[in-house]
From TrEMBL:
<keyword id="KW-0686">Riboflavin biosynthesis</keyword>
<dbReference type="GO" id="GO:0009231">
    <property type="term" value="P:riboflavin biosynthetic process"/>
</dbReference>
<feature type="domain" description="Lumazine-binding">
    <location>
        <begin position="1"/>
        <end position="96"/>
    </location>
</feature>
<feature type="domain" description="Lumazine-binding">
    <location>
        <begin position="97"/>
        <end position="193"/>
    </location>
</feature>
<feature type="repeat" description="Lumazine-binding">
    <location>
        <begin position="97"/>
        <end position="193"/>
    </location>
</feature>
<comment type="subunit">
    <text>Homotrimer.</text>
</comment>
<keyword id="KW-0808">Transferase</keyword>
<comment type="pathway">
    <text>Cofactor biosynthesis; riboflavin biosynthesis; riboflavin from 2-hydroxy-3-oxobutyl phosphate and 5-amino-6-(D-ribitylamino)uracil: step 2/2.</text>
</comment>
<dbReference type="Pfam" id="PF00677">
    <property type="entry name" value="Lum_binding"/>
</dbReference>
<feature type="repeat" description="Lumazine-binding">
    <location>
        <begin position="1"/>
        <end position="96"/>
    </location>
</feature>
<dbReference type="InterPro" id="IPR001783">
    <property type="entry name" value="Lumazine-bd"/>
</dbReference>
<dbReference type="InterPro" id="IPR026017">
    <property type="entry name" value="Lumazine-bd_dom"/>
</dbReference>
<comment type="function">
    <text>Catalyzes the dismutation of two molecules of 6,7-dimethyl-8-ribityllumazine, resulting in the formation of riboflavin and 5-amino-6-(D-ribitylamino)uracil.</text>
</comment>
<dbReference type="InterPro" id="IPR017938">
    <property type="entry name" value="Riboflavin_synthase-like_b-brl"/>
</dbReference>
<protein>
    <recommendedName>
        <fullName>Riboflavin synthase</fullName>
        <ecNumber>2.5.1.9</ecNumber>
    </recommendedName>
</protein>
<dbReference type="InterPro" id="IPR023366">
    <property type="entry name" value="ATP_synth_asu-like_sf"/>
</dbReference>
<keyword id="KW-0677">Repeat</keyword>
Length: 212
């Protein structure tokens, strides 16, 4: 479990590509100061497992499904990535519940500045839109952010200068891919409601029979 508060910007040091899988080595002295084999690290919001580490770098394996469904597929040597270690049980919870299980990717459509805020419009699949609500939470490349506008195929977030300078969103440009993780609690509620509606349709008769 993560919070969406990025700890460090790492650099892709090595990439070993399989047929559909990948092995990544990421350089980050801050992260490797306290790291163990098997630890969970969110890389641009994707939860991955540390398989080895040495000095200021650590290595993770990326399965074919993860490569296909996230922006990991577009990483190149030297690219910067957001990094966050799993939240400790006694840690401060500064963002929102982030699982590191990415729901899909989006495309940066526009970045625009308004005084001390940078608004970023992100194109997303319509399937992801139903899990987004105005002023609700969303993780973009692993960053806990608030939705300021939502359309059927687009969401808008606002970034303060600190977040821009401390995450890869300050580097990314229009047309770049980003990982999207919808709010965990919202996904459970909506999927449970949809399943319940199929099993027991919410009709007026049903409501009256149950005291509504």
């Amino acid at each position: 479990m993560f919070t969406g508060i990025v700890e460090d910007i790492g650099k892709v040091k090595a990439i070993k590509r399989g047929g559909q899988s990948m092995q990544l080595t990421i350089d980050s002295r801050k992260i490797t100061d306290d790291i163990h084999l098997g630890d969970s690290i969110a890389i641009n919001g994707v939860c991955l497992t540390v398989t080895s580490f040495s000095g200021s770098a650590f290595t993770v394996d990326v399965m074919p499904e993860t490569v296909k469904g996230t922006s990991i597929q577009s990483l190149q040597l030297g690219h910067s990535v957001n990094l966050e270690r799993a939240m400790p049980a006694n840690g401060r919870f500064g963002g929102h519940f982030v699982s590191g299980h990415v729901d899909g990717t989006g495309i940066i459509l526009r970045k625009r500045k308004l005084e001390n805020a940078i608004y970023i419009d992100i194109g997303i699949a319509e399937e992801l839109s139903k899990y987004c609500i105005l002023k609700g939470s969303v993780a973009i490349d692993g960053i806990s952010l608030t939705i300021f506008d939502i359309q059927p195929r687009q969401l808008t977030v606002s970034i303060i200068p600190h977040t821009l300078s401390e995450t890869v969103l300050g580097i990314k440009k229009e047309r770049d891919l980003v990982n999207i993780e919808n709010d965990l609690l919202g996904k459970y509620v909506i999927q449970h409601a949809e399943r319940q509606q199929k099993e027991t349709p919410m009709t007026m008769d049903f409501l009256m029979q149950n005291g509504f």
